[in-house]
Amino acid sequence: MFNSNECEIKIISRKECLDFIKLYHYQPGLPAVTWNYGIFYNGIIIGAIAFAPPSSPTIYKLFRGIFKKKTIFQLSKFALSHLAPKNTGSYALSKCLKIFKKERPKIECIITYCDMERGYKGTVFRAANWIDIGLSCKGGAQAYYHGRKRITAREFNRFNNLNIKNHYRKEKRTIKIRYIYLFDRKIHDFLLELDSNSVKE
Asked: How do residues 11-26 score in pLDDT, each as one tens digit?
């Protein structure tokens, strides 16, 4: 049974976060810039959370006139091990958000994505008061692979050598549910009316 007194959130190194993500997340990698946290239960790491700037630049269009660019972040990775008791996810996520906000007071909004095609519906996010703002669009490249090496579409597009590009295979972007977390609840109702599907990603 989950005991909140035994659950602790700590800042961890990028390597520690990446090592955990490789074991427990279906996409074993991290963006270039991340803020990393570990979820500990009885002193043992059972989860990892990584925040980053938004992976899709077009997401800024969704919040144009509402938030400044530097106040929007993305929950890039969130993974739990099989040792995590039930209800750990929503509690640890809420606690981690408070810590992240304290460290970066100007944050106003955090976005994340749940991959429907992999069976994720965002139960943890709904339990932690995140808002469903609609679906992202299918198609395009989500990432590229060379053997087991995975790079982002942005990194792939930086290659000028066609011979290098030809060795990579494309992973198509899947449909995902977009969730946002608002630190200012005053605009909660406004964003519920947001026509999120008008912005293509």
From this structure: 999 999 999 999 999 8
